[in-house]
Structure formats: C-alpha cells, structure tokens
C-alpha cells in the first residue's frame, strides 16, 4: 500500500510539530503539505526542520487548497478561530479531515458538521487513547450512580491555553449529561463565589485551572454520602495526542463521508 499523504494545518505550533514527527516516523504516512497562516514568519521554511525531525522537502505555506490537492487526509490543530476561518476551504477541498481544535460554540460545531456532507471527518476534543478510555469509563459510572452522587469536573492546563473549560472537560460533561439525562446548558456550574446557597441536586460543577506548563489533567468526582469516586487522567506529554491524531488520520483514509469519533477509531 502506498503511503497516506497527510496535510498538517498548524504546522509550526507545538502540536503541529509533534504530529509532523509522528507522521514522519510512521511507515504508513508521509507529510505532503504543511500549512500556517499568511503572516507566519516561518513560511517558506522546511516543515521537517521546524519540527526537529530533519529536512522533509515540504515547505510551510498558507494555501490550504493547494496543499489539499496533493494530500489524502488533513489534520487541523490550530484553534477554534483559525479552524472556523478555514472551514470554507475544507468544504471545498472535500478531503478526510481530523480537527483537534477546541473552544467552538455550539453554532460553530453545527457549521463544522457540514463537512460530513462532503467527506469523512472527526471533530475530536482529545485524541489520546487514555482520555477516550476515560470517557467510556465515565459513561459507565454515570449510568450506574445516576442522580445519587454529586458530580464535579476539574481540569488543569498550561497558562497559555486560550479556551476554558477545555474541550476534553466539555466532552466529559457531554458524556455524563447524556448518560443521566441532564442539560449541559442548564446544569453546568462554571464558578462559585459568595453566598450561593446549598448545592442543587442537578448541578455539575466545572472548575478550571490555568498554571505553568501543565500539559493536561482532568478529574471527575462522584461524591456520595460516606464515599467518593475520583476518575483522573493526566497527560505527561503532548505526544499522546500527536500519536492519536496520526492514528485517526490513517483510520479516516478511505472511509465513507460522514461524521465519526475517536470511539470509532479506537473501536470503543
């Protein structure tokens, strides 16, 4: 089988550089295009040299459609604003795409979903195997404890992360609320301060920490009378996300158009 040609959007970012390394190391994939915004000072430089894996002969450019024309699959790890800005080009390209950006509004998610009419795609809050296994565990625990336990979600990331709560924390909330019939819009509580009164039966707390160089930590607490269940995932390196992204891109290749998830990729 010939190598799957992958276009990396956000090639000069921290995640983009690590993903390029894993694309280069995987015998099934090859970097075909590297994309950055038009004002990026690294335009024209070799993407492999920028990523630290040696010269690859792929220059960083800003033309998404040109890059897509020589690629089989697209990976986008830019950010909500950049991804949404690029959406018309993704729709025009009609190539399989994994989007790892987070921080979208519900309206933006609905718009991004239109890609499914053109190509197979995944909008992934997190591409880590461990995180997706954690989501499955949360689904099981939530269905078991139901309304009998109070639920709190705590997430921590590095000081430079722009969106809050994290996409992974919001995905955890989605899994939990879907499992026990609650409403994310009504029942999530994002901050507590002052004389707020007693905790309501339906609320799910969502707390955010931004500090230092924390890669990503998520804890869900199920608190009952006399006991507490804590389910935690800690990422020690971005490589776990980068490996998962390449795995997902390979999985998307050759699939029918439509919306998929990391659960599909991992067979969960």
Structure overview:
With 268 residues, the protein is of the alpha/beta class. It is built from ten helices and twelve strands. Strands 3-2-1-4-5-6-12 form a seven-stranded parallel sheet. A five-stranded mixed sheet has the order 8-9-7-10-11. It folds into two domains: 4-123 and 238-266, Rossmann fold; 129-235, Dihydrodipicolinate Reductase, domain 2 (2-Layer Sandwich). The model has no long low-confidence stretch (mean pLDDT 95).
What structural keywords apply?
about 270 residues, alpha/beta, Rossmann fold, Dihydrodipicolinate Reductase, domain 2, 2 domains, five-stranded mixed sheet, 10 helices, 12 strands, about 35% helix, about 25% strand
Task: Indicate the radius of gyration in whole angstroms.
Answer: 19 Å
Largest sheet: 7 strands, parallel
Task: Please state the overall shape, judged from the principal axes of the Cα atoms.
Answer: elongated
- Count of helical regions: 10
**Superfamily at the CATH H level of the largest domain?**
NAD(P)-binding Rossmann-like Domain
Distance between the termini: 26 Å
Low-confidence spans: none
Fraction of residues in helices?
Answer: 25-40%
Main-sheet strand order equals: 3-2-1-4-5-6-12
Question: How much beta, percentage-wise?
Answer: 15-25%
Task: Please give the CATH class of the largest domain.
Answer: Alpha Beta
Look at the structure and give the mean pLDDT. Answer: 95
Class from secondary-structure proportions: alpha/beta
